[in-house]
Structure of Phosphoribosylanthranilate isomerase:
Amino acid sequence: MLRIPVLVRGINNLSDARYCAGMGADGLIFTLDPTLPDAVTPTLMGELAGWVAGVKLLGEFDAQPVSEINRLVEECGLQEVLLRQLPTTPLSVASLLTVNLADTISSAQREEMAQQYTSVFPAGFGVVVTLDSTHLDITTQQALAEAAARFPLWLSGAITPNNVLSLLDTVQPAGFLLSGGDEIKPGLRDFTELEAVFEALEE
């Protein structure tokens, strides 16, 4: 059991899918937008998902039309989606939206986001902030904590074994988004850093 929900994005191989599911990840995120780097096909996603159980399946998208995202939600059996852009019309499933760190620091922007996203994401939403540094100053930590109290806030990016528990205690996010990686060769993958983060979050 992990102390907080963890999602792993960029799943593109069986090693990652089985390892992350076995370590207690709540969900696996597959890049299904063909315009994004390292995207996988719905067929490959289905093959990988068939080897795991007990985890949510999510798709990651950038600028694809909502109609196409909703179609892939049905085709791939997605429980949620991770978006890089705010959609223009509502989606059929709960969504995580990537936003700028600066937007979550501004109290006025936080309030506007909370109101706007309620109508765009009727099935529920969370906000993902990507950290570009392993060290956050006190002001940023406090602002993120205030955002996390206003709506589900997920942290991604510079999440390491050394800072993950500090972020958990100071920000109290809804969860963490970690990143998968490529196999060295089929069936061989170095999980050293990922394993250390999982172990730090174990109950």
